[in-house]
Model the fold of this input.
Amino acid sequence: MEGWYPLLRLQEAGADVRVIGSGTKNSYHSKEGYPMEVDAAAADVSASDFDAVVVPGGFAPDNMRLHPEMIGLVRDMNEAGKLVTAICHGGWVLASAGVLKGKHATGYLPIKDDVENAGGTWVDEAVVVDGNVITSRTPVDLPDFTRAIIAHMEGRPAGTEDLPHENSGVGNVRTGG
Done:
């Protein structure tokens, strides 16, 4: 759900969403068996190709951190000041990429120590927005998470996620796989 829900909601908002994988598979299957097809390998794209990155939760982050190209892409996105987001266990990838240092963040409770050890400040809230970094806890928080992403990409301040918008497109987004 942490991959599919943002993908579908961002497409609905007008984003051109591409799924980036490690380069080892053409498709990733969730624990429920839903396949997500890969559009490109991390080694074949760069931060300049995207406006944002969405790191899903579940098993994906544990595998993503094993691939330097995936970590490098997330790091480069952050260093370019682009939107970097993660939900659930996705904060592991942000920790490995050095994104959390000095940031307030949340995620699935068992990664609290990882967030803090990476220099972040843990906050137990549905969504935490700290500059270009948006984090969320669990699938229950997906609606709030994606509203915050869309609001940020449309240039609206945090807390205005439920306001109507005139922007018909939110840019290019990358979801990890």
Observations:
- The two ends are 12 Å apart (CA to CA).
